Amino acid sequence: MIRVSDPALRKIALEAAQQVTTDIGRIHTDDLYEAICERLRQEKELFEATIHKAAAGMTRDLGERHSPRRHRKTGGLYHPDSILRLGGGIWVSMKDSTPTDTAQ
Predict the structure, then answer these.
(1) Can you give the chain as a three-state secondary structure string?
(2) CA 13 to CA 37: how far, in whole Å?
(3) Per-residue model confidence as pLDDT tens digits over 59-95
(4) How far apart are CA 59 and CA 64, in angstroms?
(5) CA dihedral 56, 41, 15, 34 (to 10 degrees)
(6) According to a count of CB atoms within 10 Å of the terminal CB, is the N or C end of the chain lower?
(7) How crowded is the C-beta side of 57, counted as CA atoms within 13 Å?
């Protein structure tokens, strides 16, 4: 789902990237983060969109960090702290999953 503010946030990111690009075409991510943050501080009307993007990123990071991977901790796929993505925006903690959930 694209929100109305997404193009505005993308424009800020692009402008910040152009600002911090070096003479030889390199973009240092630390500089880019700072330039984006500075621009977002100036755009008070994009506060809610920024919060939404941060929450989406944190959700994605949680899912990636806790997805089951072979030989991660236990040498197999099961770990009680893992999160299974069932589809349709539904996740389940592996310790609470049913046999049907794991088959999906």
Answers:
(1) CCCCCHHHHHHHHHHHHHHHCCCCCCCCHHHHHHHHHHHHHHCHHHHHHHHHHHHHHHHHHHHHHCCCCCCCCCCCCCCCCCEEEEECCEEEEHHHCCHHHHHC
(2) 9
(3) 888 888 888 765 455 556 667 778 877 878 888 887 8
(4) 9
(5) -80
(6) N
(7) 6
Pair of tokens at residue 34: 């700072």
Per the confidence metrics, is the pTM higher than 0.70? no
82 CA to centre of own chain: 17
